Amino acid sequence: MSTRAAEVYRAIADNVSQVVRGKPELIRLTVAALFAEGHLLLEDVPGVGKTTLAQCLARSVGGTWHRIQFTPDLMPGDITGVTVYRQKDEDFVFHPGGVFANVVVADEINRGTPKTQSALLEVMSEQRVTVDAVGHDVPRPFLVVATQNPIEMEGTYRLPEAQLDRFLMRLTVGYPDLAAEVLVIMSEAAGVSPRDLPAVVDLPTVTAAIAEVRASHVDRGVCEYAARLAAATRVHPAVRFGASPRGSIALVRAGQGLAATAGRAFVTPDDVKDVAIPVLAHRLVLTAEAELGRRGADEIVREVLDAVPAPGPLPAAR
Description:
Rossmann fold, alpha/beta, 14 helices
Protein backbone atom coordinates (compact mmCIF):
# COMPACT_ATOMS: atom_id res chain seq x y z
CA MET A 1 0.00 0.00 0.00
CA SER A 2 2.66 2.49 0.97
CA THR A 3 5.00 1.60 -1.91
CA ARG A 4 3.88 4.67 -3.85
CA ALA A 5 4.32 6.92 -0.81
CA ALA A 6 7.81 5.51 -0.21
CA GLU A 7 8.73 6.18 -3.84
CA VAL A 8 7.45 9.75 -3.56
CA TYR A 9 9.50 10.20 -0.39
CA ARG A 10 12.68 8.93 -2.04
CA ALA A 11 12.18 11.16 -5.08
CA ILE A 12 11.65 14.27 -2.94
CA ALA A 13 14.44 13.39 -0.49
CA ASP A 14 16.97 12.77 -3.28
CA ASN A 15 16.03 16.08 -4.91
CA VAL A 16 16.14 18.17 -1.72
CA SER A 17 19.41 16.60 -0.54
CA GLN A 18 21.17 18.06 -3.59
CA VAL A 19 20.96 21.41 -1.79
CA VAL A 20 20.25 20.57 1.87
CA ARG A 21 23.31 18.50 2.74
CA GLY A 22 23.77 16.11 5.64
CA LYS A 23 20.21 16.33 7.00
CA PRO A 24 18.46 13.08 5.97
CA GLU A 25 16.33 12.79 9.12
CA LEU A 26 15.21 16.41 8.87
CA ILE A 27 14.17 15.85 5.25
CA ARG A 28 12.38 12.64 6.23
CA LEU A 29 10.34 14.42 8.91
CA THR A 30 9.56 17.24 6.48
CA VAL A 31 8.15 14.81 3.91
CA ALA A 32 6.28 12.98 6.68
CA ALA A 33 4.54 16.26 7.50
CA LEU A 34 3.60 16.65 3.83
CA PHE A 35 2.13 13.11 3.80
CA ALA A 36 0.18 13.89 6.98
CA GLU A 37 -1.11 17.18 5.49
CA GLY A 38 0.31 18.97 8.50
CA HIS A 39 2.09 22.29 8.72
CA LEU A 40 5.75 22.80 9.63
CA LEU A 41 7.48 25.38 11.80
CA LEU A 42 11.25 25.56 11.18
CA GLU A 43 12.92 27.32 14.10
CA ASP A 44 16.64 27.90 14.32
CA VAL A 45 19.41 30.49 14.23
CA PRO A 46 20.04 32.47 11.03
CA GLY A 47 22.02 30.94 8.19
CA VAL A 48 21.42 27.22 8.78
CA GLY A 49 19.07 26.72 5.82
CA LYS A 50 15.49 27.07 7.11
CA THR A 51 14.21 28.99 4.11
CA THR A 52 16.34 26.89 1.76
CA LEU A 53 14.72 23.69 3.02
CA ALA A 54 11.24 25.19 2.66
CA GLN A 55 11.97 26.36 -0.89
CA CYS A 56 13.51 23.00 -1.88
CA LEU A 57 10.40 21.16 -0.72
CA ALA A 58 8.13 23.62 -2.52
CA ARG A 59 10.06 23.30 -5.79
CA SER A 60 10.20 19.49 -5.59
CA VAL A 61 6.42 19.17 -5.61
CA GLY A 62 4.58 20.02 -8.81
CA GLY A 63 1.87 22.63 -8.34
CA THR A 64 1.94 26.18 -7.07
CA TRP A 65 3.95 27.68 -4.24
CA HIS A 66 4.14 31.17 -2.80
CA ARG A 67 6.62 32.81 -0.45
CA ILE A 68 5.29 35.39 1.98
CA GLN A 69 7.92 37.54 3.69
CA PHE A 70 6.45 38.55 7.03
CA THR A 71 7.16 42.13 8.07
CA PRO A 72 5.49 44.48 10.58
CA ASP A 73 3.63 46.27 7.77
CA LEU A 74 2.25 43.09 6.17
CA MET A 75 -1.56 43.18 6.26
CA PRO A 76 -4.00 40.27 6.77
CA GLY A 77 -5.42 40.92 3.30
CA ASP A 78 -1.98 40.28 1.80
CA ILE A 79 -2.30 36.74 3.13
CA THR A 80 -5.97 35.87 2.71
CA GLY A 81 -6.89 38.12 -0.20
CA VAL A 82 -9.30 41.05 -0.57
CA THR A 83 -12.62 41.81 -2.23
CA VAL A 84 -12.39 44.71 -4.69
CA TYR A 85 -15.20 46.56 -6.42
CA ARG A 86 -14.81 46.38 -10.21
CA GLN A 87 -16.57 49.39 -11.64
CA LYS A 88 -17.01 48.18 -15.21
CA ASP A 89 -18.89 45.08 -14.01
CA GLU A 90 -20.53 46.87 -11.09
CA ASP A 91 -19.66 43.91 -8.90
CA PHE A 92 -17.23 42.85 -6.19
CA VAL A 93 -14.39 40.53 -7.21
CA PHE A 94 -12.21 38.45 -4.89
CA HIS A 95 -8.44 38.75 -5.39
CA PRO A 96 -6.69 35.74 -3.75
CA GLY A 97 -3.83 36.38 -1.31
CA GLY A 98 -0.56 34.57 -0.77
CA VAL A 99 -2.07 31.47 0.87
CA PHE A 100 -3.71 30.32 -2.34
CA ALA A 101 -1.02 27.82 -3.27
CA ASN A 102 -0.18 24.19 -2.58
CA VAL A 103 2.92 25.09 -0.57
CA VAL A 104 3.15 28.41 1.28
CA VAL A 105 6.53 29.48 2.67
CA ALA A 106 5.84 31.91 5.55
CA ASP A 107 9.30 33.37 6.04
CA GLU A 108 10.16 34.89 9.45
CA ILE A 109 6.56 34.50 10.59
CA ASN A 110 7.28 36.08 13.98
CA ARG A 111 8.03 39.43 12.29
CA GLY A 112 4.37 39.81 11.38
CA THR A 113 2.00 41.50 13.82
CA PRO A 114 -0.41 39.34 15.85
CA LYS A 115 -3.30 40.56 13.67
CA THR A 116 -1.49 39.40 10.54
CA GLN A 117 -0.37 36.12 12.11
CA SER A 118 -3.96 35.34 13.04
CA ALA A 119 -4.96 35.54 9.37
CA LEU A 120 -3.36 32.11 9.02
CA LEU A 121 -5.40 30.45 11.78
CA GLU A 122 -8.46 29.50 9.74
CA VAL A 123 -6.64 28.40 6.62
CA MET A 124 -4.16 26.25 8.55
CA SER A 125 -6.99 24.46 10.31
CA GLU A 126 -9.71 24.26 7.65
CA GLN A 127 -7.92 24.81 4.30
CA ARG A 128 -10.18 27.78 3.54
CA VAL A 129 -10.33 31.51 4.19
CA THR A 130 -13.31 33.72 4.88
CA VAL A 131 -13.28 37.22 3.41
CA ASP A 132 -16.32 39.47 3.78
CA ALA A 133 -18.33 36.50 5.11
CA VAL A 134 -17.62 34.44 1.97
CA GLY A 135 -15.56 31.25 2.19
CA HIS A 136 -12.86 30.42 -0.36
CA ASP A 137 -11.12 27.02 -0.46
CA VAL A 138 -7.36 26.88 -1.01
CA PRO A 139 -5.80 24.27 -3.34
CA ARG A 140 -5.16 20.76 -2.03
CA PRO A 141 -2.77 19.42 -0.93
CA PHE A 142 -2.02 22.44 1.23
CA LEU A 143 1.08 22.91 3.37
CA VAL A 144 2.39 25.92 5.29
CA VAL A 145 6.12 25.87 6.01
CA ALA A 146 6.95 28.74 8.38
CA THR A 147 10.37 29.85 9.60
CA GLN A 148 11.39 31.89 12.59
CA ASN A 149 14.55 32.96 14.38
CA PRO A 150 14.30 32.25 18.14
CA ILE A 151 17.27 34.37 19.25
CA GLU A 152 16.48 37.75 17.70
CA MET A 153 13.63 39.32 19.66
CA GLU A 154 13.74 42.94 18.48
CA GLY A 155 10.87 43.72 16.12
CA THR A 156 9.28 40.30 16.50
CA TYR A 157 5.98 39.04 17.90
CA ARG A 158 5.86 35.73 19.69
CA LEU A 159 3.46 33.25 18.13
CA PRO A 160 0.49 32.62 20.47
CA GLU A 161 -0.13 29.09 21.74
CA ALA A 162 -3.29 28.80 19.62
CA GLN A 163 -1.23 29.34 16.48
CA LEU A 164 1.64 27.09 17.55
CA ASP A 165 -0.92 24.34 18.05
CA ARG A 166 -1.83 24.56 14.34
CA PHE A 167 1.64 23.34 13.37
CA LEU A 168 1.92 19.57 13.16
CA MET A 169 5.65 19.69 13.90
CA ARG A 170 8.32 22.14 14.96
CA LEU A 171 11.76 21.21 13.64
CA THR A 172 15.22 22.63 14.14
CA VAL A 173 17.73 22.47 11.30
CA GLY A 174 20.92 22.57 13.36
CA TYR A 175 24.49 23.19 12.24
CA PRO A 176 25.89 20.76 9.65
CA ASP A 177 28.85 18.56 10.46
CA LEU A 178 32.21 19.39 8.87
CA ALA A 179 31.81 17.13 5.82
CA ALA A 180 28.29 18.40 5.11
CA GLU A 181 29.36 22.03 5.52
CA VAL A 182 32.16 21.52 3.00
CA LEU A 183 29.60 20.17 0.51
CA VAL A 184 27.34 23.16 1.20
CA ILE A 185 30.21 25.55 0.46
CA MET A 186 31.13 23.65 -2.72
CA SER A 187 27.51 23.68 -3.91
CA GLU A 188 27.24 27.40 -3.22
CA ALA A 189 30.50 28.05 -5.04
CA ALA A 190 29.19 26.07 -8.02
CA GLY A 191 25.99 28.13 -8.04
CA VAL A 192 23.62 25.32 -6.99
CA SER A 193 20.48 26.75 -5.37
CA PRO A 194 16.82 25.81 -4.76
CA ARG A 195 15.93 27.64 -7.98
CA ASP A 196 17.74 24.91 -9.94
CA LEU A 197 15.68 22.05 -8.53
CA PRO A 198 13.05 20.54 -10.82
CA ALA A 199 9.65 19.27 -9.69
CA VAL A 200 10.13 15.52 -9.27
CA VAL A 201 6.54 14.56 -8.39
CA ASP A 202 3.29 15.98 -9.72
CA LEU A 203 0.22 16.90 -7.69
CA PRO A 204 -1.88 13.80 -8.55
CA THR A 205 0.98 11.57 -7.38
CA VAL A 206 1.34 13.49 -4.11
CA THR A 207 -2.43 13.42 -3.58
CA ALA A 208 -2.49 9.66 -4.13
CA ALA A 209 0.39 9.19 -1.67
CA ILE A 210 -1.45 11.27 0.94
CA ALA A 211 -4.57 9.15 0.46
CA GLU A 212 -2.51 5.98 0.96
CA VAL A 213 -1.01 7.37 4.14
CA ARG A 214 -4.47 8.30 5.44
CA ALA A 215 -5.57 4.70 4.86
CA SER A 216 -2.61 3.15 6.71
CA HIS A 217 -3.46 0.92 9.66
CA VAL A 218 -3.30 2.36 13.17
CA ASP A 219 -3.80 -0.19 15.94
CA ARG A 220 -5.87 0.77 18.97
CA GLY A 221 -2.77 0.22 21.11
CA VAL A 222 -0.89 2.93 19.19
CA CYS A 223 -3.82 5.33 19.65
CA GLU A 224 -3.89 4.59 23.39
CA TYR A 225 -0.13 5.13 23.58
CA ALA A 226 -0.45 8.53 21.89
CA ALA A 227 -3.29 9.49 24.22
CA ARG A 228 -1.27 8.44 27.31
CA LEU A 229 1.72 10.50 26.17
CA ALA A 230 -0.43 13.59 25.71
CA ALA A 231 -2.17 13.02 29.04
CA ALA A 232 1.19 12.64 30.80
CA THR A 233 2.25 16.10 29.65
CA ARG A 234 -0.82 17.59 31.35
CA VAL A 235 0.15 16.30 34.80
CA HIS A 236 3.90 16.85 34.57
CA PRO A 237 5.00 19.14 37.44
CA ALA A 238 7.00 21.38 35.11
CA VAL A 239 4.08 21.95 32.71
CA ARG A 240 1.36 24.55 33.18
CA PHE A 241 -0.65 23.54 30.11
CA GLY A 242 -0.02 20.22 28.41
CA ALA A 243 -0.84 18.89 24.96
CA SER A 244 -4.51 18.92 23.97
CA PRO A 245 -6.29 16.09 22.11
CA ARG A 246 -5.12 17.84 18.95
CA GLY A 247 -1.62 16.91 20.09
CA SER A 248 -2.43 13.20 20.44
CA ILE A 249 -4.13 13.24 17.02
CA ALA A 250 -1.03 14.91 15.60
CA LEU A 251 1.17 12.16 17.06
CA VAL A 252 -0.74 9.51 15.15
CA ARG A 253 -0.96 11.52 11.92
CA ALA A 254 2.76 12.26 11.99
CA GLY A 255 3.42 8.60 12.82
CA GLN A 256 1.45 7.59 9.72
CA GLY A 257 3.55 9.92 7.59
CA LEU A 258 6.80 8.62 9.07
CA ALA A 259 5.77 4.98 8.59
CA ALA A 260 5.04 5.70 4.92
CA THR A 261 8.58 7.00 4.36
CA ALA A 262 9.80 3.58 5.53
CA GLY A 263 7.45 1.78 3.14
CA ARG A 264 5.15 0.49 5.87
CA ALA A 265 1.34 0.41 5.78
CA PHE A 266 1.01 0.46 9.56
CA VAL A 267 2.16 2.61 12.47
CA THR A 268 4.33 1.28 15.29
CA PRO A 269 4.95 2.72 18.77
CA ASP A 270 8.48 3.57 17.61
CA ASP A 271 7.01 5.83 14.92
CA VAL A 272 5.13 7.71 17.63
CA LYS A 273 8.28 7.94 19.74
CA ASP A 274 10.31 9.29 16.81
CA VAL A 275 7.88 12.16 16.23
CA ALA A 276 7.03 12.87 19.88
CA ILE A 277 9.47 15.76 20.41
CA PRO A 278 8.75 17.65 17.15
CA VAL A 279 5.00 17.11 17.63
CA LEU A 280 4.57 17.77 21.35
CA ALA A 281 7.32 20.11 22.55
CA HIS A 282 5.95 23.30 20.98
CA ARG A 283 2.49 22.58 22.42
CA LEU A 284 3.65 22.70 26.05
CA VAL A 285 3.46 25.79 28.24
CA LEU A 286 5.97 25.40 31.05
CA THR A 287 5.64 26.74 34.57
CA ALA A 288 7.53 29.86 35.58
CA GLU A 289 9.75 27.76 37.84
CA ALA A 290 10.68 25.46 34.94
CA GLU A 291 11.52 28.42 32.71
CA LEU A 292 13.61 30.03 35.44
CA GLY A 293 15.41 26.72 35.83
CA ARG A 294 16.09 26.78 32.08
CA ARG A 295 14.24 23.54 31.52
CA GLY A 296 13.29 22.98 27.90
CA ALA A 297 10.12 21.46 26.46
CA ASP A 298 12.22 18.87 24.62
CA GLU A 299 13.58 17.68 27.96
CA ILE A 300 10.05 17.37 29.36
CA VAL A 301 8.90 15.27 26.40
CA ARG A 302 11.90 12.96 26.85
CA GLU A 303 10.93 12.47 30.50
CA VAL A 304 7.36 11.67 29.46
CA LEU A 305 8.62 9.12 26.91
CA ASP A 306 10.72 7.47 29.63
CA ALA A 307 7.79 7.41 32.06
CA VAL A 308 5.04 6.11 29.77
CA PRO A 309 5.55 2.46 28.73
CA ALA A 310 5.08 1.66 25.06
CA PRO A 311 2.74 -1.17 24.06
CA GLY A 312 4.16 -4.56 23.18
CA PRO A 313 4.14 -6.18 19.72
CA LEU A 314 1.01 -5.22 17.78
CA PRO A 315 -0.93 -7.55 15.47
CA ALA A 316 -0.34 -5.42 12.35
CA ALA A 317 3.38 -5.20 13.04
CA ARG A 318 4.06 -8.91 13.24
